[in-house]
Amino acid sequence: STPVPSEMPSPSPSGPPVLPISEHEDEIVAAVEANPVIVVIGETGSGKSTQLSQILHRRGYTRRGAIAVTQPRRVAAVSVSRRVAQELGVSIGEEVGYAIRFEDRTSEKTKIKYLTDGVLLRESLSNPELKQYSVIILDEAHERSLNTYGHLYVTQIYR
């Protein structure tokens, strides 16, 4: 049975907690390697927002660019990035960071970057191919507008 949120393991600098999505790590990586776009569906609390980026980071995807994880809201980009940084035992702005309107807590060392759709769109204006990213994760896709999907379609054409 899936643990309820109060039973979820607490984060520690020794690594991410074991969440239901972890059981599918090999399948997820195989799907990412075989397809330009994948959809991951899971229950709330299964680890999609915090663990997908860490799985891909562990598997070497950050060797050829950062992993971008878009969030529909600024507060989500900040809170999820802090959680991931805590799980990895790093400070915000180092290996894990976030970029929201008027605030950029990333550096040259940032490998996992949480950002809003608007920030990604602005980045695409100066770099339409978004080559600084090896993977772009669109989190909470059900909360997106057609504008977001149109942007992803344009991005996909360049890849």
UniProtKB/TrEMBL annotation:
PROSITE patterns per the UniProt record, alphabetical: DEAH_ATP_HELICASE (PS00690), HELICASE_ATP_BIND_1 (PS51192)
Keyword match Hydrolase: yes
SMART domains the record matches: DEXDc
Span of domain Helicase ATP-binding: 29-159
Keywords: Hydrolase
Any GO molecular function: RNA binding
Domain of life: Eukaryota
PANTHER family the UniProt entry points to: ATP-DEPENDENT RNA HELICASE, PRE-MRNA-SPLICING FACTOR ATP-DEPENDENT RNA HELICASE DEAH4-RELATED
Name this protein carries in UniProt: Helicase ATP-binding domain-containing protein
